[in-house]
């Protein structure tokens, strides 16, 4: 793949639409001038935004589409408009080889369904997974997957998620040998479902993969910073991710209440504002924006629906990085390694 | 059941042992002087603590046991010492009718195994569940179950958890008609596993029970305060509970870092101390201590291993309340209502 990523951007997705999506693209383009954009959506609206970003305009082409997938549409219905909607056409541009990665801030289920249908699941992967970066107390974010693409998962799904998550963390977090753990309800070997126990046994034995498998972890240890990739089924992953988001909001809401509870604490708040701004910055989802679908034949990134310009730029950077580092090829190699290892083991018996 | 609850307390359980457990009992007894205690464990150690709490000593009897279950022991091993250990004998005192409820701060798995064996599961309940109170932004805490007793749950388990959780919240939160929801990865009817969808259909139809079933909820809405009982399988419940604990600690750790990052923010912190103390108070697990096993023929409460004196007193208060309000009978009545409703429906067909 070339070194100048071509991004297919659904300019209509997200709560705000073209204004934020185009501004985000401009911000990403400002940092990496080699990015190329295909912008899908209402030509007039996109043109108006592009006029405010002339440098980006020079690196972009608008593809007009009337049709937009609504946030509440069912994937089974949305998919019928894969060839007309801004989301569907952005994905299709990747299939057709006109772009290297697709990004949308729209309906997650619809984006997943369209991406699977158009780009197909990689050889060696049974089911694609949704992965995202989460903040930690450590030196870097962590990768967590699956976050809701697969409600129920078997052993092979979990092992494949570990391989994909490790490859992704090597690319986006710049780690040589990420520390991988399976999310469970205890850290002892006997805990959890049979699927988890068998997946742990397979991964424990997989030293030849570019990861260090450290066994199980629990919900209260997610953000401690001693693990780089957390692997789980989509049901538990979605519950954990949303519970973490909700609790962070809960604590900051309590804090706000506390700080406004008296004149004294209001003054304290004003003085310590740089401190609370630091906290806000660390917890701002826009700094960790861009959930990725792993396991497809090309990168697709889901930007958060209410991401701001910075959040969209981050999602674009994640996509560009996956293209530059050729993540899809890296996952393929790891899967081949597992298969070869299995063959070698069988031959040795 | 009488109005003066007799509490069987495993004085050796928890990270500290007799010092905290006895002090907690004294604190609970100070508030409700009618409580009676059986204290199980090392007689010398308990006696030394009781000497500091003469009023409690007058309402207590020590039952000496040499044997203590260790935190890391497997339930299958611990259970062999049900008749010798302080934990096992506390549970057994309830079975023998010498006490009305048992409390331990020790090994959760062992306590569950011993309680199930000695006290048996209630008629109409397939599997007991572990329930706890969680803080919210609303007027009251919420009840969440199952928190880890059952890794996999079927539809009937979930429906029974809803009945038990609703009865428990009526008793401990003093609610007339608690708002009940099932934890899921989306709020649309189509989301989630078949077990969840079927359980929702049964509960939606169960207006005659003392609850209001409001459908599904998601991880990010747990602490908003618009639901009183959240029902889930033990795997997801454990992940959600621990993720919430971990995230709350993560945010407060970040806050501490931020507040100590400069002289200015340190001063701000000192001034706004009453505000941050308020936050600390709200998040202190000791204010919500006492996970209960629901579905057994008598109340058993698990106090958190590192609970302080206040936490233990709270666990005792929860147990006493379950005894006074005769929770076991209330759950039995609700289950009979479901059965009668089922029969009436069948007859009407």
Rg over C-alpha atoms of chain A, rounded to the nearest angstrom: 21 Å
How many distinct beta strands of chain A?
A: 11
CATH architecture name of the largest domain in chain A: 3-Layer(aba) Sandwich
Compute the separation of the termini of chain A in Å.
40 Å
Mean pLDDT of chain A: 90
GO cellular component, one term (chains A, B): cytoplasm
Subcellular location (chains A, B): Cytoplasm
EC number (chains A, B): 2.3.1.274
GO molecular function (chains A, B): phosphate:acyl-[acyl carrier protein] acyltransferase activity
What does this structure look like?
2 copies of one chain form a homodimer. Chain A has 349 residues and is an alpha/beta fold. Chain A folds into 2 domains: 153 residues, Isopropylmalate Dehydrogenase; 168 residues, Isopropylmalate Dehydrogenase (3-Layer(aba) Sandwich), CATH 3.40.718.10. The first copy, chain A, has an 11-stranded mixed beta sheet with strand order 3-2-1-4-11-10-5-6-9-7-8, with helices on both faces. In chain A, α1 packs across α12, α7 crosses α8 and α7 packs across α13. The mean pLDDT of chain A is 90. Chains A and B meet through α9, α10 and α11 of A and α9, α10 and α11 of B.
